[in-house]
Amino acid sequence: MTNNALKISEACSLAMHAMAMLAGDPEHIFSTHQIAGELKGSEAHLSKVMQRLAKSGFVEAVRGPGGGFRLSGDPDKITLLDIYEVVEGPFSLQRCLLSTPICQGERCVLGGLVEKVNKLVYTQLKKTKISQLRDVFHRNKIGDSKHSKNR
Description:
Helix content: 40-55%
Low-confidence stretches: 140-151
């Protein structure tokens, strides 16, 4: 387990990374096996995440042999915040680490840090479009020998 101050669920992280992968080659149909392999994640967990993304209209599920998922939404209009909210529900700008806030205003053991960090994360998620993440996986078309050699 990795210790990070920023806590984004594995499901949400899988969704964001999978969408970046699909945006890198929007015409290609990616199998759950391919995506899970690239992300080093559970196929079963990823499958549930991809179904949520399909239900949202961000990806299209293609059935049958050679089936999988491909991007169906406009990558210039889908933000990381959109993906976050499909998986986690509405983003909440919390001021406290506790589920029932006990600190009032600036009287916090972390001095307002939680609120500042949450605003920063919200802004980053809202401004980042999937189209900006096309090169995250440095993916050429599947089967390109250049891509295979770099693995």
